[in-house]
C-alpha cells in the first residue's frame, strides 16, 4: 500500500461497476469514494467493504464532474499525489507500479499515459500508428490549473517535459476505459457534455455555419475512425466512431443555435409567428 497516493473514485449509482474497480485498486493505496447521491447499493457496498466515502455537496454533485467537484475532492484528500478514477476504468499492474515509484521519488508532478477504449466486450480504440500517451489521471494536486478548465479537460494539466513524463504507449501502461452504456444511455449522458462544450466555445467567441455544422464533424469522424484504429474492429468500432460523430453534431448544432440566439423561448416565439399567420389565413379565406 502506497501511503503517498490517494485514489479518488467518483460514483453515482455504481453498485454494478464499483466492485470491479475496487478489486483492481484495493491493494494499491487508500481509496476514497466521492458519491454524487447514489440511490442503489453503491454505499451499501462501501459499508460492507469498509471503503471510506464522502457525499458530494450540492455544488459538487454534478454527473459531469466539473471543476467544483474536483476542487472539493482535492480539499478532502491528505496526500499530494492523487489518482483520478471513475468506475469505467481499469489500471494494469505495471501502470500502478509506475505511479507508485514516481510517488515514492516525489519528483515528477504528473504522468501521461495512453487510453485503450473497450465497447461491446472488445477494443474499439487503440491507434495502430503514432500511438501517443496523452491522458493524465495521476498527478500532484498542486499542478492543477482550474482557470483554464474546460469540459473533457477539467483539470487543465498542461504537459511539461521538465517535471512530467509520457509513458510508453502500450497496453500494459495504458488506462483501459470501458464504455458500458448502450446507444440510448450514451446519448443521454453526453448531451449534457455537448451543451457544456458548446457554451464554452460560444463564450470563447466561436461561431459555426454550414461547414462547421455539417462537414467538420464528418471530417473528424473519418480522421478518428482510421486514426483510432476503430476501422479494424468491425461494427463495434464503427458504432464507437458514429456515436462520437453524433456527439460532435450535437455540439455544433447547439453552438449554431447559441450564435443565432435560438434559445427554447426564441424558437417558440419564431414558430408562434408562423402559427399566428396560418391561423389568420385559415380564418380569412
Describe this structure in a few short sentences.
The protein is 43% helix and 20% strand.
Outline the low-pLDDT stretches. Answer: none
Q: In total, how many domains does the architecture comprise?
A: 2
CATH superfamily of the largest domain, called what? Spore Coat Polysaccharide Biosynthesis Protein SpsA, Chain A
Give the tally of β-strands.
Answer: 10
Describe the protein.
With 285 residues, this protein is of the alpha/beta class. The protein has two domains: 2-178, Spore Coat Polysaccharide Biosynthesis Protein SpsA, Chain A; 182-266, no CATH class. It contains eight helices and ten strands. The protein has helices at 18-25, 42-48, 67-75, 93-105, 183-203, 210-227, 234-259, 264-283, and strands at 2-11, 29-35, 52-55, 81-86, 89-90, 110-119, 122-125, 135-140, 164-166, 174-179. Strands 1, 2, 3, 4, 5, 6, 7, 8, 9 and 10 form a ten-stranded mixed beta sheet that branches. The chain is globular, with a radius of gyration of 22 Å. The N and C termini lie far apart (83 Å).
Write the layout of secondary structure elements.
Elements: E1 2-11, H1 18-25, E2 29-35, H2 42-48, E3 52-55, H3 67-75, E4 81-86, E5 89-90, H4 93-105, E6 110-119, E7 122-125, E8 135-140, E9 164-166, E10 174-179, H5 183-203, H6 210-227, H7 234-259, H8 264-283
Parallel strand pairs: 1-2, 1-4, 2-3, 6-9, 6-10
Antiparallel strand pairs: 4-8, 5-10, 6-7, 6-8
Helix pairs in contact: 5-7, 6-7
Amino acid at each position: 500500500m502506497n501511503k503517498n497516493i490517494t485514489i479518488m473514485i467518483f460514483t453515482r449509482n455504481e453498485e454494478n461497476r464499483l466492485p470491479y474497480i475496487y478489486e483492481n485498486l484495493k491493494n494499491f493505496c487508500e481509496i476514497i469514494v466521492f458519491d454524487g447521491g447514489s440511490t442503489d447499493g453503491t454505499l451499501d457496498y462501501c459499508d460492507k467493504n469498509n471503503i471510506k466515502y464522502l457525499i458530494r455537496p450540492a455544488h459538487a454533485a454534478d454527473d459531469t464532474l466539473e471543476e467544483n467537484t474536483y476542487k472539493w475532492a482535492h480539499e478532502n484528500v491528505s496526500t499530494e499525489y492523487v489518482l483520478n478514477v471513475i468506475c469505467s476504468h481499469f489500471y494494469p499492474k505495471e501502470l500502478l507500479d509506475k505511479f507508485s515509484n514516481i510517488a515514492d521519488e516525489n519528483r515528477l508532478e504528473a504522468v501521461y499515459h495512453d487510453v485503450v477504449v473497450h465497447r461491446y466486450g472488445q477494443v474499439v480504440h487503440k491507434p495502430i500508428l503514432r500511438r501517443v500517451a496523452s491522458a493524465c489521471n495521476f498527478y500532484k494536486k498542486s499542478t492543477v490549473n482550474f482557470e483554464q478548465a474546460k469540459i473533457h479537460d477539467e483539470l487543465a494539466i498542461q504537459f511539461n517535459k521538465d517535471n512530467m513524463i509520457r509513458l510508453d504507449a502500450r497496453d500494459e501502461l495504458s488506462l483501459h476505459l470501458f464504455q458500458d452504456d448502450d446507444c440510448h444511455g450514451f446519448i443521454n449522458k453526453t448531451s449534457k457534455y455537448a451543451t457544456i462544450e458548446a457554451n464554452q466555445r460560444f463564450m470563447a467567441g466561436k461561431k459555426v455555419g454550414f461547414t462547421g455544422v455539417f462537414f467538420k464533424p464528418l471530417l473528424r469522424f473519418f480522421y478518428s475512425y482510421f486514426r483510432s484504429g476503430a476501422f479494424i474492429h468491425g461494427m463495434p468500432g464503427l458504432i464507437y466512431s458514429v456515436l462520437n460523430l453524433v456527439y460532435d453534431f450535437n455540439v455544433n448544432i447547439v453552438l449554431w443555435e447559441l450564435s443565432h440566439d435560438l434559445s427554447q423561448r426564441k424558437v417558440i416565439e419564431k414558430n408562434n409567428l408562423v402559427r399566428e399567420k396560418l391561423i389568420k389565413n385559415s380564418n380569412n379565406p
